[in-house]
Amino acid sequence: MIFDDITDAIGHTPLVRLRVPAAEGVEVYAKLELQNLFGMKDRVAANIVLEAKRVGALADGAHIVESSSGTMALGVALVGTALGHPVHIVTDPRIDRMTLAKLRALGCRVHVVEAMTSHGWQSARLEALERLMADLPGAFWPQQYSNPDNPGAYRKLAREVLDDLGSVDVLVGSVGSGGSLCGTSRALRESLPDLHVVGVDCVGSALFDQPDEPRRRQSGLGNSLLPKNLDRTLVDEVHWLNDHEAFAATRALAAEQQIFAGNTSGSVYRVLTDVASRAEPGTRIVGIFPDRGDRYADTVYSDEYWASSGLADLAVADAPEQVDYGTEVDRWSRSVNKSGRDLDRHLVFVEANTTGTGMLALDLTAGLGLRPVLLTGKPERYAGLAATGAEVLVCDTNSPSALRTAVQDRFRREEVAGVVSTSDFYAPAVADLAAWLGLPRNPVDAVRTCRDKSLLRRRLAEEGVPQPRYAVLDEPVTADAVAAAVADVGLPCVVKPVDDSGSNLVVLCHDTAQVAAAAERVLAVRENVRGLPTARRVLVEQYARGPEFSVELFGWAGESHLVGVTRKSVTGGPHFVEHRHLFPAPLDPADADALADAARRAVEAAGMTLGATHTEVVLTERGPAVVEVNPRLAGGMIPELIRLATGVQLLEQQLRVGAGLPPELAAGDTGHAGIAFLLAPEHGVLRGVDGVAAARAVPGVVEVTVTARVGATVRPPANAYDRLGYVIARAASPEEVDAALTAALGRIDTRIESEGDQ
After folding, report:
1. Angle formed by the axes of helices 453-462 and 444-451, to 10°?
2. What does DSSP say about strands 684-690 and 623-630: parallel, antiparallel, or unpaired?
3. Per residue in 717-754, pLDDT tens?
4. pLDDT of 521-567, one tens digit each?
5. Does pTM top 0.70 for this prediction?
6. Inter-residue contact 141 to 129 (CB < 8 Å)
7. Collapsed DSSP state (helix, strand, coil) of residue 678
8. 101 sits in which H/E element
9. Cα Rg for the chain, rounded, in angstroms?
10. What letters, b where the CB count within 10 A reaches 16 and e where it falls short, cover 624-663?
11. Nearest CA among 740, 719, 720, 722 for reference residue 730
């Protein structure tokens, strides 16, 4: 295997079958992470540094500062110096001479603190690190104990294990920062939900509710505090070994398996032998071996150290004692893990809709046993936010780095159940943040593809999904480019931004001059309504003629479940604004099947797998043509129509799957529901809306809401933001729903003072 760069050599570690007593058919493997260049933390350093560069937290050539006396220091030194960054390592006099020699040889600067401070060597190192950060503007601190890029590094380890073995039944790993075991098990459980996870801790560690004993001699596992990256809910069973047992197991590993390793690997080995002895035939067990033994020559492998430290005086168990969780232990013991089960769990929202589902979603979160948290740059944007009881974290939600910092600073990983949004614009940010945390999500690439209609068009074309003909215009728009697009697509055609929402700037064009003008209007917009930069590309597509529908699908457990088909009515050209919906659409069964099939093919082509998708389809003379795949719930109050017609609260189901809970999609046959929007017939100032009470009195009407403000300037709709309000009705048949909506609209009078009268 040949690598172009030293950092590319990180990973790709061997998986070795161990010879341990077990029932016939039990397989036990060691993942030799100690075969990395310096150790397992090479993976962590590479992932943290590369991700920091990607999101802009680490500038080219900036200093990297880390506090460590072990393999994390070596990993940061390796990756940082290889990528051209000055590296500073803050450590203390306990650092072993081998590690110190390696750090200096790699060219990084080592800062050794001279004395303990209020909380020992750890606080002394952190205080020195803070001084360094203040003296080095722009310096980056990896923060391995709280940075989710630590456990995120082990997705590659999990993939290597699956590539080598196909499946695993039990994973055994040490617990220190929470990175390796939590990151690997979280990734494996995405395809192996029944994986049994065994954590290896040490006597005197506080990670699993044992009393802290700071004088423990083991390194690389255990902790006096709970690291933010530790997610104890992932661990099914926990073992504790004392120093004598861990060191003896490390020597046994070298003698019995010819693996010269550190005490963390030795502890994992000892627990592997117990797990294997209890395993049923056919069980496949993998243990993660993090560290090699050269750092431990003067401790674990030194008879003199054993004699001087009194290790031999500690009690030793030949097999673990099964204890109730919370029992204080002083030798090898094991227990079913019960920690982390009663934590407050949070559902994190990245912004939200300002109307409709936005505040409702925050309200529904409490019903799932979760606490809602809203990340927002402008809390004042949300009317009724205080009444939801949601915690509000103010940050720059348009910055991936700021989003990550807000979550990392506020939460331990085990406190976050999911990341969601009801805002179309933040779907990519949600996918990226959830991927960073290892939470349920759609693939980031799939969400970005759906949000950029030019990418979606290309993907659908590659997969042969029926769609309108299209062309894409980039800056600068030339006459030749417009002419070529029109020639490819034909006239009339539709011009739209590739990444906006609510029919904004979507226009029907009848000649090349109109296409050019519409394209220039799109490209003139550099930020959308949320301040996010626009893609600055224009989609020119064939005007697909025929009735319009949306297909509501819901992805779960590898399947796209059909929720239903919505009939959509839109204003005529030049703008296309939805003004009436009916659910379920009255359709011939063959047409309904064709629409659902086209939507499924489109969703699968885009790569969406989890939760709601809203696919817009035109039923042309030649069959369905897919116009858009939206990676979200339907807008336009369609989820409320679904609730009225079937009893399924689709918004709640979207929140459930975002938090890793199974959806409840079983529908009842309760009728039909529809919505009609209030539209302004002319430009002017809205002076009042009369007849609302009379509209509510129409049989079948369940809601009448005016969203426009009296005194606001209104216009005939050019996008969804121009709608003035809505009427919702429910009845036994689609005809009755339509009749109720029409009757209610007929009783409402919008008093508009025309521009000429002002």
Report:
1. 110
2. unpaired
3. 999 999 999 999 999 999 999 999 999 999 999 999 98
4. 999 999 999 999 999 999 999 999 999 999 999 999 999 999 999 99
5. yes
6. yes
7. strand
8. helix 97-105
9. 30
10. bbbbbbbbbbbbbbbbbbbbbbbebbbbbbbbbbbbebeb
11. 740
